[in-house]
Design brief:
28% helix, two-stranded antiparallel sheet, homodimer, 33% strand, alpha+beta, 10 strands, six-stranded antiparallel sheet, DNA-binding
Chain lengths: 241, 241
DNA sequence: TAGTGGTCTAGACCACCCT
DNA sequence: GGGTGGTCTAGACCACTAA
């Protein structure tokens, strides 16, 4: 473990246990560098980590201060880049079932070419799955994946986790993803599989997943019953420049 | 402008204009430090910026590489922490009108106390506004703000921008915010003001806005017609650790 | 084994806040 | 003017990759 991460963790502990009281000013960087037997640059890198994590903030010429909501953050598992997820999380006690509705190969549509940076002749998998949580219909997932990037998909893979297969079997490292969320009226599939009445909407999440090298890997649209999920995230530093 | 930011901008330009081709390896850090007449540490800080921005990625022992989707990012205005917003952006040519439906003062509910870290005796403003875009009902906004933090709100402020008032008149610097998005069936207010039919859902966005020092400033719920908005964001580095 | 990125140091100078 | 954070340097060592 790098020293600046160790220092950051130690300071995080101190904030959590009250050694550095909320809203107080922290010891200055020079003092900290002496205490931790390290250079000031290393202290600065540690404090940068905590700043991005939302625990502290600095004012040049004044000092480093603890945020008032630091304790909430120290408790939770929110981390940089990891701050997006379905609130209705699936935990150990829940039973998740996959039902494959469609599994085929075809050429991509124009929209899919654009999203996945493909040519018209690059074949893709088209996969429709119904996710069932505790015997209740949970979501309808429509996924498009380039055949050349993600080869060897089988019915068995679809029953398990597609992402586990991509990560563990194919050795692909995930990078960023882009999502768009909207509310929508239920269509025929929603009514059939999610048991939506005419006036029961769905929350639709479109996502493009990229590898760490920036290659588009998957374009998916997931539809949820409106009463089954909500999406939460933290938006940092809206006042940059 | 700090030197590492200048270097980052120059490298960004080179990626954009093709000096460093997509998916190629960049010159190594030592070479770059000589070219820019600076230290390697400064080059590293510049590359860190570009990494967070999603333009490049590094593999220790191997090199620094350009991401395949770097060009899309270089074009767009997406920045760190700024990567969340309504897709239906309001630009200059659009006409935005505010209609105040309710403007009152009261004590907070239990939920509001929890979200805003208030005591039961701390009074709050309760504000309901209808936003009208190009003569079309756009959103219904319900806001709760602590009276002691945001004093002096007037009808005139509500007609203009509340955030401008908080920033410019009160000198408060915004920090992070937390949002939750869900789909919902229309209620009576939605039907009256957003012209929702019974089967036309709304997209509801709950938000808690914090100051830079981490004090909760505003708790709001905004409801949109399902066909007027969608929310987009970029989720970075899902594979940390 | 050679090349490359990751980290760390000690000291320096500057910009900014506060009194 | 004194204190504090932001930046920068030159050099060093380590960890990892790739051949």
């Amino acid at each position: 473990m790098a020293k600046y991460k160790e220092v950051a963790n130690e300071i995080r502990k101190r904030i959590k246990n009250g050694t550095y009281p909320i809203k107080d000013r922290m010891p200055d960087q020079t003092t900290l560098s002496k205490e931790f037997h390290t250079s000031r640059v290393t202290i600065k890198k540690a404090l940068d980590l905590l700043t991005v994590a939302g625990l502290v903030y600095t004012i040049q010429g004044s000092g480093t201060y603890i945020k008032q909501n630091a304790l909430q953050l120290a408790e939770s598992s929110i981390r940089i880049g990891q701050n997006v997820g379905l609130t209705a999380q699936v935990d150990e006690s829940m039973e998740l079932e996959n039902k494959t509705l469609k599994f085929g190969v075809r050429f991509p549509t124009e929209e899919e070419c654009e999203q996945l940076l493909l040519k018209k002749e690059d074949p893709v998998y088209e996969i429709d799955r119904l996710r069932i949580l505790n015997k209740q219909p949970y979501s309808l997932e429509h996924s498009i994946l380039p055949l050349t990037l993600v080869p060897g998909v089988t019915q068995e893979v679809l029953q398990q986790s597609m992402y586990d297969y991509i990560r563990n079997e194919l050795g692909i490292v995930f990078g960023e993803n882009r999502q768009t969320i909207r509310a929508a009226q239920p269509d025929e599939l929603d009514k059939e599989y999610l048991n939506c009445a005419d006036d029961e909407p769905v929350l639709e999440v479109s996502k493009v997943m990229f590898t760490s090298s920036g290659t588009p890997l998957e374009y998916s649209k997931v539809r949820h019953r409106f009463d089954m999920v909500e999406m939460s995230f933290v938006n940092l530093n809206t006042e940059l420049e």
